[in-house]
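Consortium newsletter contribution from the modelling node. Members have asked for a concrete example of what our holo predictions look like. Here is one, prepared for the P-hydroxybenzoic acid complex that several groups have been discussing at recent meetings.
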Amino acid sequence: MKTQVAIIGAGPAGLMLGHLLRAEGIDCIVIERASGDYILGRIRAGVLERVTTDLMDRLDLGARMHKEGLPHDGFNLADGERLIRIDIAALTGKQVMVYGQTEITRDLMDAAPSRGLEVIYDADDVALHDIEGDAPFVTFTKDGKEQRIDARFICGCDGFHGPSRQAIPASVGKPFELVYPFGWLGILADVPPCNHELIYANHDRGFALASMRSPTRSRYYIDVPVTEKVEDWSDDRIWDELATRLGPDAAAHMTRGPSIEKSIAPLRSFVFEPMQHGSLFLAGDAAHIVPPTGAKGLNLAASDVTYLSDALIGYFKRNDRDGVAGYSTKALARVWKSERFSWSLTKLMHRFPNDGPFERRVQVAELAYIASSEAAQISIAENYVGLPL
Ligand code: APR
Ligand code: PHB
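And here is the predicted structure:
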């Protein structure tokens, strides 16, 4: 097979990129290891920045998101005593959209056939070849048969564990990494949310987040040591812990119910530089990971593929080589700002096992500063709604 752009990975990054290219008539094929059902079974964060909602609108795929999604004007930081409301609408003039990232993936996946976007699922042994030249190719096995796709460019949208980043020689690429000493234990339940907006809480017993998917479906998290096993956390134990950490007011409005999903996700900050090498480009989790505090993962994938599709469209339609040459530099500038914000909100809202009384006093002071300073609130709000492209 032959195409202009081979895209590895059919998560949100790969599918958004594929749709953006197809909308301009550029040929591409998406090659995915898993099945569509498996991908839709993964529960991810649920807060969309304007860059992501704009991208869905540009693709004319935003109808369900606007119908079922919940626009939010603000969110809350709880410090054990009070709720500090960050009024993002008043402070920035913008909103965020609460809509499950899994639903974004479903909308992109459902539209693929009618938009002429070919996605090959269940592809094994995906491997990249000749990425340093201008005729790279991808090989894989499908139904026991070896396949080969020749392309002008390969886009690695294959997440943190995929083969694309590994194809860049160690002498060229540099990873930057920070691993946190806890994970988030998440619970999804068909119960109404305890608050109409999100609450991020820093309590003596640790972090908690009250989030939602709809007026009848809630998503909650608490942080737990990475060594913890999900089997040791009964639903009751999680609800008790949430009630304590979120504080009496949220607890009074919290409806308990059986979990429909429960899992522990480790927290990591990671950036790989550069995000391109030869004819290979990386986008989304293949190039960077943020801790979920602030929900920047999908939104960064959306900004990456906006830059990358612009560059590829320029290359194929106007013979412009500068766009593709500058992709990594442009994308990394925004990636690092989101990394900084996700890291700082994680530091502010979690109790780190190695922190002592000094670090705790600094947290208390920072929360008090945020509560009393509009300048501090504007800074948080403009990062939370998403920095401009
Ligand atoms: N061959 C082909 N596909 C692969 C391979 C491989 N060897 N390895 C991984 N993949 C696929 C995965 O199965 C997955 O479907 O690549 C896809 C990567 O998708 P994500 O992990 O969702 O990453 P990305 O698309 O960058 O998503 C960005 O969106 O949902 C959020 O929180 C999520 O931060 C993430 C963001
Ligand atoms: C979620 O709803 O899953 C969610 C929301 C906000 C976050 C992280 C996760 O910061």
